[in-house]
Amino acid sequence: MTHRPIILGIVGDSAAGKTTLTRGIAQILGEDEVTILCTDDYHRYDRQQRAQKAISALHPDCNYLDIMQQHLGLLRTGQSILKPIYNHNTGTFEPPEYIQPRRFVIVEGLLGYSTRLARECFDVKAFLAPPESLRSEWKVKRDTRKRGYTDEQVLEQLRKREPDSEEFIRPQRKWSDIVISFYPPDELSDEQRDLMLNVRLVLRPTIPHPDFTRLLSPSKSHLSTAIRLELDRDMGKPVDVLEVDGHATEEQVRELERILCSEIPYLGKYCTLEGDPNIGKVTGTTGETLQSYPLALTQLLITYHMLKAAHIYQSSEPALT
Ligand SMILES: Nc1ncnc2c1ncn2[C@@H]1O[C@H](COP(=O)(O)OP(=O)(O)OP(=O)(O)O)[C@@H](O)[C@H]1O
Ligand SMILES: O=C(CO)[C@H](O)[C@H](O)COP(=O)(O)O
């Protein structure tokens, strides 16, 4: 007997950082405990057909969203699916794959929150929204190095897809519990910027976040040079905003980590930077390994929510047979 899987959604435009974040969280939770699903696999047309029809992969009509939401519903109740496979190297489809959900499922992709039934399947919903200039840099570097495109082809694709990004991808931000924006600090050179990205985390009151108000106490004022909590509005709705700067020190990061771990003691086992020095490591666009504290804390916050959801459901819901 086992309990239903806990499902995390990571949605955002192409090269917004979904795979990078997904891999980091899976590593913390334990790769044997996590099933990863990319919704690019639900594209309706292959690359050649998309070119002929002049439709972008970002358009809902270019994806089997009905089958995607059906599969999410099955995974949520612990059932297996036969998932299509889209191969980014060839631009074509491969034979489907049998997927059995593990304890945690991470679903990353372009259109995960675009239907109500799909949205209802997620326990935690994250949306990645880096500034467009950074996303474009990441996409050019990634697609030229890993997907065989030229700089001009990627820039042309970005330009052509912009109307669909605006109409179908960005509006999904409003359905997320956490909006994550990595962004470069203004004052640094291009090379330094990649190593020192800040993060802005918009925390909607749609799920109970850790009590970060402790950051506001006078005894924590030394943290404010790199870690800040503020009230703001996002798409008109009131939100908390947690900012972590890339120049935060290890000591400051550990204090924030203690706030996270103190609320749910079992979190400490999974996520301490001390226990796992790989948290927050990222392979840069040129293949180099970087460690980012803002990324580490983002991964820890999402892990917090996954474990909390698992804890709540394991103690309150009957096990699946
Ligand atoms: N937090 C980050 N810090 C530094 N670099 C990052 C970060 N997130 C992503 N990148 C860089 O941006 C590139 C694109 O990221 P990633 O592949 O994770 O995007 P994606 O949203 O999964 O893209 P797609 O949907 O097109 O597959 C990566 O190759 C990585 O080098
Ligand atoms: O936006 C994307 C998500 O990664 C891809 O570009 C989309 O899946 C289309 O793929 P391709 O570049 O292989 O035509």
UniProtKB/TrEMBL annotation:
Gene Ontology molecular functions: ATP binding; phosphoribulokinase activity
Record keywords: ATP-binding, Calvin cycle, Kinase, Nucleotide-binding, Photosynthesis, Transferase
Catalytic activity, EC: 2.7.1.19
Catalytic activity from the UniProt record: D-ribulose 5-phosphate + ATP = D-ribulose 1,5-bisphosphate + ADP + H(+)
Pathway(s) the chain acts in: Carbohydrate biosynthesis; Calvin cycle
Root EC class: transferase
One Gene Ontology term from the biological process aspect of the record: reductive pentose-phosphate cycle
InterPro entries: P-loop_NTPase, PRK, PRK/URK
Transmembrane segment boundaries: none
A Pfam cross-reference name: PRK
Domain Phosphoribulokinase/uridine kinase span(s) in chain numbering: 7-184
Protein family according to the UniProt entry: Belongs to the phosphoribulokinase family.
Name under which the protein is recorded: Phosphoribulokinase
